Amino acid sequence: MVNSLRNIVLVGAGNVATHLGFALKNLGYQITQVYSRTKKSAIRLSSLLDTGYTTNINLLDNRADLYLFCLKDDGIMPVLCRASFTNQVLVHTSGTLPLSVFQGCSKNYAVLYPVQTFSRLKKLDLKGVPLCIEANNPDILATIETMAKEISGNVLFMDSDKRKILHLAAIFACNFPNHMYFLAEKILSESGLNFDLLKPLIMETASKILEIDPFSAQTGPAMREDQRIIEEHLRILKDLPDIQKLYTFVSDSISAYRGSPARRTNKNIPEKNE
Amino acid sequence: MVNSLRNIVLVGAGNVATHLGFALKNLGYQITQVYSRTKKSAIRLSSLLDTGYTTNINLLDNRADLYLFCLKDDGIMPVLCRASFTNQVLVHTSGTLPLSVFQGCSKNYAVLYPVQTFSRLKKLDLKGVPLCIEANNPDILATIETMAKEISGNVLFMDSDKRKILHLAAIFACNFPNHMYFLAEKILSESGLNFDLLKPLIMETASKILEIDPFSAQTGPAMREDQRIIEEHLRILKDLPDIQKLYTFVSDSISAYRGSPARRTNKNIPEKNE
User: Fold this and answer.
1) Under an 8 A CB cutoff, do A219 and B118 touch?
2) What ipTM was assigned to the predicted interfaces of this complex?
3) Which CATH architecture has domain B164-264?
4) Which of A133, A177, A216, A248 could in theory staple to A268 by disulfide, Cβ–Cβ 3.0 to 4.6 A?
5) Is A96 at the interface with chain B, CB within 8 A?
6) In order along chain B (274 residues), what is the average pLDDT of each group of 10 residues?
């Protein structure tokens, strides 16, 4: 039985490893080693965390209590096959990989999936970030829960199937909105306008969600079914045909759900918007 | 020449009229009347602002200095045709209507377009909101600028053509991300998961934009070209074919720009994401 996990090897040196590594170090955990496939990343993170590193999976420190896998999903398998674990605790941070990916590799394994987007360049407070945990036995689950609760006040048990759904929804809540910001920036830059103009709008749109459900929060021509504006926008976008198509596609999707009878009962369609 | 505009009629009683009406009242402006096509809206806002109302355009208070039009775009024309103005200042708040919509209606007219999304149920501080102004003569422009600067510290001159582009970009920065939140909520609710799980992610995704450009901020399977995860997500969405199509469409758009040579020079593709 593992009661405490004080010595940790970070398997991966990307954005998640960086943010979790710092959080754990600040909580008094000992990061004993950083593994990365690329020397540059390994050196960068290990020097930031003031620890050793390796790019050779055979040289992984085998005395640690816990191995925290923060790799791209398709990077986990090759590492698992080459490293030899016995009863060390293996933990991955993936939204999509099942817990069972560790089966046969160790007697003790778990998942700690942070529902968050990580960029190395952007500081981040992990305290409110939902951490979804799962483990192959109750002892490990309790141990991981203790560690997770030190990192965040928002720890939940979630099985692999639900976690996968949550990860999919997170794509819609994060990557897709960010792509819309990117396209907005592109539209503005074509006309020499500054993206900063949209920053208060972006922040307000996100923070609305804390108070109002997304259906009630929606504004804009597609929600109002203002065909004149939609057609004018499509005309403006005629030289950016890919963005024009996306405008149509997303607007049609907004219109389709606007008319959904299931939602009409509590609709609150705004009279005027940005 | 108009030096000060202290008496204001609000033409419209929706979200924009509500937020601007409160801001102006708090600044010491006199809202003399609220006009709305619907009695319910007129009564609601006029009682909130403690002023008179009318639903009859012929009974519009003709002694005000300024008429602030906060209507749906296609609502402005009918109002203009029926009201008789001489040299009162007419101001609209639309992103897409040109300044010239007021031509022939009065000697003095202007635009004050707030780059923001307004919901009645969500409180909003207008101080940092970009206000784009334009007028048909320098005196009115100066007068509107004075008023706008009382409302917000972020006032810009912008002509009708650029304003229209900015409004289009605002759809991408606001309505489209909000629709993605709506779809995320829908995906979660199908599995009994709570939308609250995504709120820290949504806020972080938006606030990243204050520090990192949207291209560098992007994470996720489409950015990493992780085809295994994308296919798994499409499989999960097989019973929601409309959302499945949208997932493909937006992911393809992310992938297409990922490979854009113009952007590759300063790319910072994340190793791992939510």
Assistant:
1) yes
2) 0.91
3) Orthogonal Bundle (1.10)
4) A216
5) yes
6) 78 96 96 96 97 93 94 81 83 95 92 94 91 97 96 97 97 98 97 97 96 93 91 95 96 87 40 38
